[in-house]
Write a structure and sequence with these properties.
The protein has twelve helices and 20 strands. Strands 1, 11, 14, 15, 16, 17, 18, 19 and 20 form a nine-stranded mixed sheet that branches. Bound molecules: pyridoxal-5'-phosphate (PLP).
Length: 377
Amino acid sequence: MNKGQHYGGRAWIELDGAALRHNVRVLRAKLPETCRLMPALKADAYGHGAVLIAKELNSMGINSFCVACAREGVALRKQGIKGEILILGYTHPAEFYLLRRYCLAQTVIDYRYAVLLNRCGRKIHVHIGIDTGMHRLGERSENIDKICGMYRMKNLVIDGIYTHLCADDGLKGYEREYTYQQADKFHQMIEEMKKEGLPISRLHMQSSYSVLNYPELSGDYARVGIALYGLLGTAEDTGRLNGFLEPVLSLKARVALVKKLYAGESAGYGMEFRADHDMEIATITIGYADGFPRALSKGRGTALINGHRAPILGLVCMDQTIVDISGILDVKPGDAAVLIGKSGDKEISACDLAEEAGTITNEILSRLGARLERVVI
Ligand SMILES: *Cc1c(COP(=O)(O)O)cnc(C)c1O
């Protein structure tokens, strides 16, 4: 795509390739050399665009990825993404054939599921998921017999064993205690398996927060998602990083038109906004169908235009949003409005936006819509 003035996109995402490379470098530096990054590309790489991000990462020598479901893995393969792709979530047995056809590794979510995978009759690559306290997916770590049983299943090619930490984002006493308890359960299970003489394959438990908060828990992979994209779940946590990571994504839309709103008139659905003085307003080409949260209505959110803040007026619509540009000079149709990112010396980060919308960064990013164009700059 031509990024110059000829580009006519309505609402789009710009990906900063240099920021992504920076994040890969600093995260790798946090980990021992033997630990590989296994970036989380689920939910279209947290809204960034999984294929674009995977290609960038492939070119940096990263060849292990994780996704949420088979469909996501298949989409990456169809676009030529190489290397190992691990499905972290559930795949229905009717779709097991996709695992072989597209060379995807499946998480074994418990013993019963291992039996189903094995019954499929051909070799399937897997990582065994272990439940050490999150109680979502995984076989319970104390069920050594069942875990050993999986090693006797002739169609399971066991490439790894992993657990997921559920309190690693906090450093309070009870959170630290729970995290170490989870790690201990995992390591105890591995010791038991060694006693049984089982070949122990690659081990992993860290995701973004644990790479930063618990570097000593590193394994053979780190399944990094949000940190790779330069952010953490909340503005407070991201602030604490103090520029250590750089946000990869900016979200922009066009000013469609500029008009007057006179005192006493209303703007948008439900006449939710009423002007008590004459104003200049602009309609911008992004709405909640693009993943721009409706919760930002009525001044809770802002856009940046020409380096100034333009508060949202009334209710965010499905495809458009009305903003207040009173006092901002020279706003013209076709100008870019920044919803996430920098404009002049102002910045709205995805975590600020999440906070205003009452959620976490991950939810905002992962819901950015398919209608947005995505471009690497
Ligand atoms: C989403 C996910 C990750 C990545 O999490 P981040 O906090 O974004 O780094 C890692 N492991 C599992 C099992 C996940 O579901």
